[in-house]
Backbone:
């Protein structure tokens, strides 16, 4: 615990005691009073920060790479035969806090499932990208991709339909 | 027809007197850059002295509490994100803890430790920005930029863990959205090195800065009695010398196992608040270090399938076959949901600004019957007129930035 105390200690906490401490604090006060050492110290700090690595990105040229697991735009997954995984169980629409998913189901033409979505629309302008649809999906059909920059020129373009979501 | 009586000029001058002491009413905000949000204060000033101040709130009213009544228990977490936009994870954790208290659930040790780490990291991000903005409002611009660089690193950690930088929505009742990634510990340790360095640099800039000290010491002071009677909590209350901290007074998430202090200062002025915030930052680093060291292994969700949806297998389908699928559906279907008993609960957590309380009433249904938040900012803001009265106009700016009012939380 002793080492932790010294690691997480404010520099204002006095170290040591007696004459040494008093001399140091007197010197510190003197350097502030004289004023010039403070200016030199401030400039030194500025120079130090100038050579540090930049914290900013030149955005349009340098794109920020999202980490794995970032909650961006949705996509609908397909199985190995190219059919959507979705079985239109409406769990994502129920779990959605923004109520932005709208599904219309129809009987499936394939024997291994009962229903398939005939229309699957997500209003991306209402979506809050919380990822609850992905969490609620029991069939691994919907997932959030790391894509977050997608421009549209009209509101209708931001309502993604089944084709768009499958190709996303 | 009589001519209208006109007051001769001399009398007008006698009435108004010297222009320097004339009473004026000035709008401060809602669009003032120093209000850090949409806050409006109507100042009554005489010369440079503030004689009265009238606060108007509600410019960022979003109806969060009402929306919460139309969302299920788990969905409420997305609303809590948006209340305090400087530390959304604290709101997430507070809400989930309140629901768990109502249901009588104890989270797993790993979940509690992860929540504590993220809670303290959020406190660091909130306090470091608060100190930086306080310095910026008083003219020290570089401190603000340094603090933003550190917050950027924290947001990278949050993005890695939760999948979003601000709208984290990370907690679930009885667990978390997902476990932390493998490189979480390395990332946090790397941040702690750079964060401590920047924090010491910030202190070195401000602690002996004559301008900063003169603008802070003795400014906007509030007495301990006033602070208690207004319901002020958090760093503001501790700056008055009262060591009230929910983490110590009513421990939750196993906070009693961690070794940390509750820093207090005397004076209750802007300087004391700055000192309390900075000293709390070191305590938060200490807690994160301890929690990372002892981070237990194990599941993050409680093993109750009615509460936490079953984990998913390799194909991302619910585990447990048909039974698992039924529990999965029962968690989401209309008319089903979490088995929250009828009752009400108040659960407070120590958010960076003070006591963040959730008061929930359940009628046994899938949604809360009432969802009430006790935001620390609202109660802290109530004491603000008393602090400003008698001070200068420029002290209003210094005081407001030291309060760290979050408008989203204030108006909800």
Residues:
């Amino acid at each position: 615990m002793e080492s932790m105390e010294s690691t997480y200690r404010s520099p204002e906490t006095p170290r040591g005691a007696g004459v040494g401490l008093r001399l140091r604090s007197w010197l510190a006060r003197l350097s502030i009073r004289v004023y010039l050492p403070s200016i030199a110290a401030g400039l030194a700090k500025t120079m130090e920060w100038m050579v540090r690595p930049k914290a900013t990105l030149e955005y349009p040229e340098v794109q920020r790479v999202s980490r794995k697991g970032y909650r961006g735009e949705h996509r609908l997954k397909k199985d190995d035969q190219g059919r959507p995984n979705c079985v239109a169980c409406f769990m994502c629409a129920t779990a959605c806090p923004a109520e932005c998913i709208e599904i219309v189901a129809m009987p499936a033409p394939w024997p291994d499932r009962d229903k398939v979505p005939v229309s699957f629309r997500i209003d991306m302008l209402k979506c809050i990208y919380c990822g609850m649809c992905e969490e609620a999906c029991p069939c691994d059909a919907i997932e959030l991709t790391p894509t977050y920059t997608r421009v549209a020129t009209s509101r209708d373009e931001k309502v993604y339909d089944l084709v768009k979501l499958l190709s996303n | 027809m009589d001519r209208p009586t006109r007051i001769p000029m001399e009398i007008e001058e006698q009435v108004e007197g010297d222009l320097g002491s004339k009473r004026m009413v000035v709008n401060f905000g809602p669009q003032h850059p120093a209000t850090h949000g949409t806050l409006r204060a109507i100042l009554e000033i005489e010369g440079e002295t503030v004689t009265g101040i009238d606060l108007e709130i509600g410019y960022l009213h979003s109806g969060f509490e009402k929306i919460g009544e139309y969302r299920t228990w788990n969905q409420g977490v997305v609303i809590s994100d948006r209340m305090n936009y400087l530390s959304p994870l604290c709101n997430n954790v507070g809400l989930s803890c309140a629901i768990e208290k109502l249901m009588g659930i104890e989270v797993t040790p790993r979940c509690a430790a992860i929540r504590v780490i993220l809670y303290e990291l959020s406190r660091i991000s909130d306090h470091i920005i608060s100190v930086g903005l306080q310095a910026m409002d008083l003219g020290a611009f570089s401190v603000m930029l340094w603090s933003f660089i550190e917050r950027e690193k924290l947001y990278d950690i949050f993005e890695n863990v939760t999948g979003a930088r601000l709208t984290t929505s990370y907690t679930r009742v009885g667990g978390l959205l997902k476990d932390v990634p493998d490189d979480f510990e390395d990332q946090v340790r790397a941040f702690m090195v750079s964060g401590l360095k920047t924090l010491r640099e910030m202190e070195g800039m401000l602690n002996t800065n004559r301008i900063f000290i003169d603008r802070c010491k003795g400014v906007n002071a509030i007495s301990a009695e006033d602070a208690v009677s207004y319901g002020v909590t958090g760093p503001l209350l501790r700056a008055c010398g009262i060591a009230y901290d929910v983490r110590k007074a009513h421990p939750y998430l196993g906070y009693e196992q961690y070794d940390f202090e509750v820093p207090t200062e005397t004076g209750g002025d802007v300087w004391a608040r700055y000192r309390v915030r900075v000293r709390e930052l070191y305590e938060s680093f200490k807690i994160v270090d301890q929690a990372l060291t002892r981070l237990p292994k194990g599941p993050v969700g409680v093993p109750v399938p009615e509460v936490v949806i079953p984990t998913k297998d390799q194909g991302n389908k619910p585990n447990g076959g048909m039974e698992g699928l039924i529990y999965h559906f029962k968690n989401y279907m209309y008319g089903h949901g979490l088995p929250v008993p009828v009752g009400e609960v108040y659960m407070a957590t120590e958010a960076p600004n003070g006591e963040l309380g959730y008061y929930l009433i359940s009628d046994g249904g899938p949604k809360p019957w009432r969802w009430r938040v006790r935001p620390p900012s609202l109660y802290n803001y109530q004491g603000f007129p008393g602090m400003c009265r008698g001070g200068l106009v420029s002290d209003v700016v210094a005081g407001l930035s030291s309060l760290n009012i979050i408008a989203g939380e204030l108006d909800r």
